[in-house]
Amino acid sequence: MEITTEMIKELRAATNAGIMDCRQALTEANGDFQKAVDWLREKGMATAAKRADREASQGVVELYSHGGGRVGVMVEVNCETDFVARSEKFRELAHEIALQIAAAAPRYIKEDEIPAEVLEHEAEIARARAKEEGKPDAVAEKIVQGRIEKFKDEVVLLRQPYIRDESLTIEKLILQAVSAIGENILVRRFQRWELGERLGS
């Protein structure tokens, strides 16, 4: 896969690693952004990644109401210091995350929060659909895997495309903020309510 200048710039913006290191990371990861971040992390080059282990107990609970009170969101976004928690850049990020949750209705923050039975249920639906379409087994399994990845992109906040810029995921948006602000930032928890939805749905 060809590693473009754009890809290198994006990885550099998210990790603060050097240009050559970013190029090497993307080459090693065959152009996969997340694998490249992990590669830099393992090599100890990504400053954003280094900060990921630091305690983040300060922050803000952002409240957002949309559509004249039809959708309400409460999200807790954490950072390391009270100073950063009060900064405009951090507050803006928390607000953007609340907007994302209101618009895209994620169900989980990270993919490892998805219960195994939920993934199995999605796989069963995809298998049944592939069978109905008469796909051979080998092809069907690829379709199932693709469907599960698509499902994760839809329901996992960090994997969702950012509503203002679809070339960025929420995870990349947060990594960029980590680089700019210089502190670990994480989404601790969120709740989204929609008027008239059934409880427990």
What are the salient characteristics of this protein?
single chain; 201 residues; alpha+beta; Helicase, Ruva Protein, domain 3; GTP Cyclohydrolase I, Chain A, domain 1
Topology:
Layout: H1 5-15, H2 19-28, H3 33-42, H4 47-51, E1 58-66, E2 71-79, H5 82-85, H6 88-104, H7 116-132, H8 137-155, E3 161-162, E4 165-169, H9 170-181, E5 186-194
Antiparallel strand pairs: 1-2, 2-5, 3-4
Helix pairs in contact: 1-2, 1-3, 2-3, 6-9, 7-8
Structural account:
The chain has 201 residues and is an alpha+beta fold. The chain folds into 3 domains: 5-51, Helicase, Ruva Protein, domain 3 (Orthogonal Bundle), CATH 1.10.8; 58-110 and 156-194, Elongation factor Ts, dimerisation domain (Tetrahydropterin Synthase, Chain A, 2-Layer Sandwich); 115-155, GTP Cyclohydrolase I, Chain A, domain 1. Helix content is 52%, strand content 17%. The termini are far apart.
Count of discrete alpha- or pi-helical segments spanning 4 or more residues: 9
Form type: flat
Structural class, from helix and strand content? Answer: alpha+beta
Instruction: Summarize the helix and strand pattern as letters.
Output: HHHHEEHHHHEEHE
**Ends: how far apart?**
42 Å
